[in-house]
Write a structure and sequence with these properties.
mainly beta, globular, 5-stranded antiparallel β-sheet, 1 helix
């Protein structure tokens, strides 16, 4: 009974917050995996992140639209009363990038949490609809390296339209995919390209063929897939471990160049 009352109070709080906002902010996605936090902010392809700063675990972003500079602020300490960052933890920005429809901020959490902490949050907000896609084979995807880990992410070519419903606020139901085929190719410029085909037991979710350009991967290195997740209905994130090719025979799930 107590849990039901708590949920009712939480729902009312959401309604009050939303009703007090005359203009909803842009939609965003947050995903934390241990000491890594990704922030995806919906934006048109004519906009870009000019600057990003952290102040008391609040993310301040300057967005250049080509006409003016818009300023955005999001608290990453708590999101709708859900604890994202613990009081003794601090965030540091490692870099920014963008993919079709989203600007991305990469953050590290310190000190590293000894216990695994995986968290996803989706705020629909105002959506950018019918965005013309930027040309190029990798405009939908990007990758960011930090030490021996590469985080790659992309906008899915087909949005997830499952028979399951995702929660609009708070935690979302996540459909755990697995990769059917993985390989690491070399493109004409000598860069490594990770190709993944994902499958899911839910018949409403089609197979996806994804490609990620790994420009920070050296020729003597290869990668192994450590984790992967659907973030909302249109973003897919893959966590990769960088290892030396000399050790590739010691691991079963390490990819080799074709």
């Amino acid at each position: 009974m107590t849990n039901i009352k708590s949920l009712i109070v939480l729902f009312i709080s959401f309604a009050i917050v939303l009703s007090s906002c005359e203009k909803p902010g842009p939609g965003y996605r947050i995903h934390r995996r241990n000491d890594t936090l990704l922030f995806f902010l919906a934006m048109s392809n004519t906009s870009e992140i000019i600057d990003a700063k952290i102040n008391n675990n609040e993310l301040h972003i300057d967005i250049g639209t080509g006409i003016e500079i818009e300023k955005g602020e999001t608290s990453l300490q708590q999101v709708f009363n859900i604890q994202v960052i613990e009081p003794d933890e601090r965030l540091k920005i490692q870099g920014t990038s963008r993919i079709n429809g989203y600007g991305v901020v990469h953050l590290k959490v310190s000190p590293p949490n000894q216990e695994k902490k995986i968290f996803s949050f989706e705020w629909n907000g105002s959506r950018i609809k019918d965005i013309p896609k930027e040309p190029g084979p990798f405009a939908n995807s990007n990758a960011f390296r930090f030490e021996d880990e590469i985080i790659s992410y992309c906008v899915l070519p087909d949005k997830i339209n499952s028979s399951w419903k995702t929660a609009k606020f708070g935690y979302s139901f996540q459909f755990k995919r697995r990769t059917a085929n993985e390989n690491l190719d070399i493109d004409s410029n000598g860069n490594s390209v990770l190709n993944i085909e994902t499958i899911n037991t839910d018949p409403d979710i089609p197979k996806q063929h994804l490609s990620f350009l790994l420009v920070d991967l050296q020729h003597h290195e290869t990668v192994e897939v450590k984790d992967q997740i659907n973030l909302g209905e249109d973003i897919y994130v893959v966590y990769l471990k960088v290892v030396s090719k000399k050790n590739q025979n010691k691991h079963n799930n390490i990819l080799s160049d074709r």
